[in-house]
Each structure stands twice: as structure tokens, then as C-alpha cells.
Design brief:
By secondary structure, the chain is an alpha+beta fold. Among the domains are: 4-50, Orthogonal Bundle (Helicase, Ruva Protein, domain 3); 54-143, Elongation factor Ts, dimerisation domain (Tetrahydropterin Synthase, Chain A), CATH 3.30.479.20. The protein contains twelve helices and ten strands. Strands 1-2-5 form a three-stranded antiparallel β-sheet. A three-stranded antiparallel β-sheet has the order 6-7-10. A hairpin with a 2-residue loop joins β1 (57-65) and β2 (68-76). The two termini are 45 Å apart.
Amino acid sequence: MISASLIKDLREKTGAGMLDCKKALEENGGDIDKAIDWLREKGISKAAKKADRVAAEGVAAILTKGNDAVILEMNSETDFVAKNDKFTELVKTILETVIDSKANSLEDVLNLTCGDSTINDLIVENTATIGEKLSLRRIARVSKEDNESFGEYIHMGGKIAVLIVTEGTSEEVAKDVAMHAAAMRPTYVSEEDVPSEEVEKEKAVLTEQAMNEGKPEEIAKKMVQGRIKKFFKEICLEEQPFVKDSDVNVKTFVKNNGGSIKAMYRFEVGEGIEKKEENFAEEVAKQLK
């Protein structure tokens, strides 16, 4: 009997799927080293060799179906692969599998059954087939009420995807907000969403700046109050001047159309990933060694 912990160890070492790991261990009497060699011989653990590569390209995509929607960021190592038919089909398969499920976390999504395997296994298999590290970086499954609307917008062929949920207004208004969010890069929907520690940190920085300008303490406090409002305008969707009408902020625009913003999901490909840059001459030298 092969234990679950042994299968888990082999999976972590090779990146192969659970069923393949179980079979490899069964074929080799539970010997993990022999199982690793068996997987390598079969070409199944090929994906593991790419585990340390940086996958910072890819695509952000959205699928809506009735009152449900899924938004994801799928990464590859190069933009070329992100336009590959196999990669595109993989993204489509994941979206369609997740939208018909109840999965609400990345872990749940990776463990979802898809055909004869799981989504995680499918990604590993495609990594081996395509020849680049592929990674499902983040995904959200969103449900709305009948009086709510989805606004979706894909920018630059999938470099940025935005999903907005509004209440009491139309899809057109929600889409306008999504287009705004794609362009203006808000981090939060409203001031209330900004963590208190982030606000206090910003206030401390602004206070220090004002004091360094030689302002008296009372004047410095008033300056900070004004500058913190500017800070909220930069990071909060509702407080930003609306791109189509800068006389009103986004919150007012939606309110004037009878609604309010309930949620925002904004995925920008490679956001926050440190891309690996190598000197071309050094890379050639490595290849010649």
C-alpha cells in the first residue's frame, strides 16, 4: 500500500500528477529514487526541470455565464507561448471547468477534476508538451445577484483583465468602470477597503515630509490631511476622477446612473513578478560551456 505522504513527496520532487506518482511508486515497490527515474524515463517529470524558471508573461482572461464569472492570470515564460494555440486552449479549459464548479480558492481550482486528471496535472502536462514553465498564478470565481451587473474589459489582448460588479445599474456602466480601472490601476474599491496599517504608514511618511519642509506641527497636520486625500484618489477606484468625465469621480458617475460598485478584480499579467534579465553574452557563454 503506497501512502499518501509518499505520493505527495514524489509529486513535490518531480511536479508529476498524483496518479502518475502513485503508479511510479507502485511499479517500483515504493522506492522514491527509482520512481523518480521511472518518471524521467517516461518523460512525465520533464516539467519539474523548469520549476526554477520565471514565468512572467502570459494572459489574463475572463469568462461570464449568467450570474457567475471567472477571472484568471495564467503565466508562461514568453509572450510567444502565451499566443500558442495549446496555451489558449488550456486557459479556455480552466475557465470553463471552474465556472461550472464551486471552487473558491486557487488550491480548490488546481484540484478540480478535468477529464481524466486534475487542472494541476493538466498544467504540468502542458508544461512538458509546450516546453516552458506554465503557472496558474491567481483566479477568482465570482457570483452576482439578479439586480447586479458584471462589467468586463480585456486590454492589450489579455495583458490586463478587469471584472467589475455593480448593483442597480447597467452592464454598460459596469464596463465603463472596468475600462477606467484598466487604465488608472486602482488597488482598492473604496477608502474603507484600504488597510489601516497602510493608511498609518502613509500618514507617517507624509508627516515626516511636511516636518522636513520646516512646517510647524499644526500646519504639518493639515498638510497631511490634504495629502492623504490625494493618496486615496490615487489608489481607490471610487475616488479617482472618471476618465470619461474628470468633473466627477467614479463613485459619483456610478451613483448618477442609479448604482454602486460592489467589487473589483483587476489582474495585470506579471504584476509584482521580478523578471529575470540576463546579459546576452553571458547567456551565450553558458550555452557554450
